[in-house]
From TrEMBL:
Catalytic activity from the UniProt record: adenosine(34) in tRNA + H2O + H(+) = inosine(34) in tRNA + NH4(+)
Function: Catalyzes the deamination of adenosine to inosine at the wobble position 34 of tRNA(Arg2).
Organism this protein belongs to: Desulfocurvibacter africanus subsp. africanus str. Walvis Bay
The enzyme's E.C. designation: 3.5.4.33
Protein name per its UniProtKB record: tRNA-specific adenosine deaminase
Family, similarity comment: Belongs to the cytidine and deoxycytidylate deaminase family.
GO MF, one example: tRNA-specific adenosine-34 deaminase activity
Gene Ontology process terms (BP): tRNA wobble adenosine to inosine editing
Active site positions: E71 (proton donor)
Alphabetized UniProt keyword annotations: Hydrolase, Metal-binding, tRNA processing, Zinc
Domain CMP/dCMP-type deaminase stretches: 17-127
Cofactor(s) needed by this chain: Zn(2+)
Residues annotated as binding Zn(2+): H69, C99, C102
Gene designation: tadA
Origin organism lineage: Bacteria, Pseudomonadati, Thermodesulfobacteriota, Desulfovibrionia, Desulfovibrionales
Amino acid sequence: MTSPQLLPPVSPPAGWASWREVMDVALRQAHEAGSMGEVPVGAALLSAEGSLLAQAHNAPLSLNDPTAHAEMLCLRQGASTLGNYRLTGCILAVTLEPCIMCLGALVHARIAGLVIGARDPKAGAVLSRLKGLRLPFLNHQFWVLEGIMAEDCGKLLSSFFLRRRKARQGLLSP
């Protein structure tokens, strides 16, 4: 499924064989987050030319920062690398559909596109809970490509939360 406003490119930027290859970078970051006890979400930011500008994973617990979502950290790294908070032409790949905070940051950063692994039925602000790009007051639009490695991304999250619930019930060690 795509954004109703803009169509995503069929292929990723130069240097990447497929969108799966791009998502795999984000998924490795998600695995790292999970191993640290963080919700396993990862992101990767590409320039329009295909350079990997940044990669990050969720870190709100370890950084004591409620804004330390994978997307936010990736955008910060990318902006620092480019010396500009406007990430025009850049593409963000993320294992889980962004929340409303991250959607706002993506709009302000002026990214060109968003590649989503799994939808977030609880807090997804792009496609699931809120059709965020249809909000009439947004001053920027970007294309959206969803479902890249969705099963892998979804299974990682499901297994993480299952382990966490069992640990809380005393069935597993955390």
